Amino acid sequence: MLRDFSFRDYTFSDFALQDGRILVKQTGAHIPLNGEFFRDFARGASFAAEVSAISAARQARGRLGKSKKKRIRISFAPVTPYPWYAIWAVSHLADLDIVRDPAAADILFYFEDCEYTTRLPLNADGRPVLNGDCLDIRKSMVAEKFREVFGYTLDVDPLIHHGLALRKSERNGVHDGQIIPCPYFANTQGHVFQRLIDNTQDGRVYTDIRTPIVGGTIPAVYLKRRSAMARFSNDNFRVDLTTADEQFTPEEQQKIIAFARAMKLDFGGMDVLRDRKDGRIYIVDVNKTDMGPPTALPRQDKLTAMRALADSFRAFVAERLKADAPS
Q1: pLDDT tier at 97, thresholds 50, 70, 90
Q2: What values do phi and psi take at 46, rounded to 5?
Q3: Nearest to 142 by CA among 265, 33, 325
Q4: Higher-confidence position of 264 and 21
Q5: Which of 94, 186, 251, 285 is 20 to 30 A off residue 327, Cα-Cα?
Q6: What are the tens digits of pLDDT across the range 26-44?
Q7: What's the CA dihedral at 260, 3, 305, 297 to 10 degrees?
C-alpha cells in the first residue's frame, strides 16, 4: 500500500541539531536553521500534503471503479526518501506502489546520498535497479565524463592555470565554492578546480539551469536565479519553470542525455551553466538524490513539473520491467 505523507512517518530521532544546523541522519545533509528554513519547510509540507491528496483521490477512484490493474511496486534502498526529495513526489504522482520491504518490490531504486561507493549496498536478486550503476558522482568524475562527451573542459589544473578559478568540494550539496587566483599551491586534497563561468546575462543575476533527467529524457527544466552574494549557494530569489527546447539546442540536449548515460544516471538532476563569454553550456554538478521541486517555484508550476517527471518516470519504469522480464 502506498504510504502517504505524514509527519508520523518521521521521528525526532531521524534528525539532530549540530552547529546551528539540522542534520538529517539518513543522508548526512545539513540544513541551516533560520527563517528561510521555516518558510521552505512550510512550503514543502504544503506541497507534500497536496501530492498525497492527489494520490489518495486517484486510489479511491481506482477502488470505486474496481480496477484490477496491478500497480507497479517500487522500493528504495538502503534509504527511503523523505517528502522533500523529487523522487518521492514523482513516485506518488506516477501511481507507483511504494513498499518498504525490498523483497516485495517489482523494481528497486538505489537511493543513498553519498558521492562514491565501490559496490551496490543492496541485494537486487535479479530485479532491475534504477541508478544501480550510478556509484560515483564526485566532481572529478563529473568533469571527466563532461570532457569525454562534450569535447571541451570544465576542470583546470590549479598549479598551471593563470587567472581566476572556482574551488569546490568533491562532496555533493556542500555549496562551498570559492573564487581563487591561480596558480594555486596550497593543499588541494578533497577539492576540484573549475573554470569560472559567467552564467549571467547582465553580470548581476546568476542563473543555474537545473536539469532533471528521467530515463534519458529531460521532462522539465528550472531556471534558478541567484544574486552575486548567493552565487554558489542554494538560495534562489526566483525560480522559473521552462523546457529543454527553450534552453538548449537539439545538439546540446543530445549531449546532456549522453552525459547522463555516461554517468549511469537513470533519475536525478544536473546543474548546467551557460557561459555568456563563449555561449557554451557546462555541467558542473550531478545529483542522484535530487531534492525538489524548488521551494521558490510557484505552486502550480511545481505540480506541472512533477507531473511531467512522473509521466516520464512511469513510462521508464514500465520499459525497464519489460526489458528485464524473462523471455
Answers
A1: very high
A2: -65, -40
A3: 265
A4: 264
A5: 94
A6: 555 566 666 566 666 677 7
A7: -110
Here the cell at position 83 is: 517528502
Closest CA to 243 of 207, 224, 219: 219
Which residue in 88, 86, 113 sits closest to 27, CA to CA?
Answer: 113
Q: CA–CA separation, 148 vs 153, rounded Å?
A: 9
Smallest CA-to-CA distance from 159 within 178, 182, 181 is with: 182
Contact 61, 280 (CB under 8 A): no
Q: In what order do the strands lie in the sheet with 267-274?
A: 238-242, 221-226, 206-214, 267-274, 281-287
| 135 closest CA partner among 149, 154, 155, 121 | 121
pLDDT in tens, 160-185: 999 999 999 887 767 788 999 999 98
Residue ranges and CATH numbers for the domains of the chain are 7-135 (no CATH), 139-287 (3.30.470.20)
Positive or negative, the Cα torsion across 229, 233, 238, 239?
Answer: positive
Task: Please give the grid coordinates belonging to residue 77.
Answer: 534502498
| Type and span of the H or E element at 15 | strand 15-18
Contact 210, 270 (CB under 8 A): yes
User: Cis before residue 183, ω within 30 degrees of 0?
Assistant: yes
CA distances in angstroms from 313 to 86, 194, 302, listed in the order given? 11, 32, 16
Taking the C-alpha atoms of residue 64 and residue 114, their distance in angstroms, rounded to an integer, is: 42
Residues recorded for the chain: 327
pTM: 0.87
The type of residue at 76 is: F
> Above 90 in pLDDT, residue 264?
yes
Q: Are 15 and 24 in contact (CB under 8 A)?
A: yes
pLDDT digits (tens, 9 = 90+) for 103-127: 999 999 999 988 889 888 887 888 9
Q: How far apart are the first and last CA of the chain?
A: 29
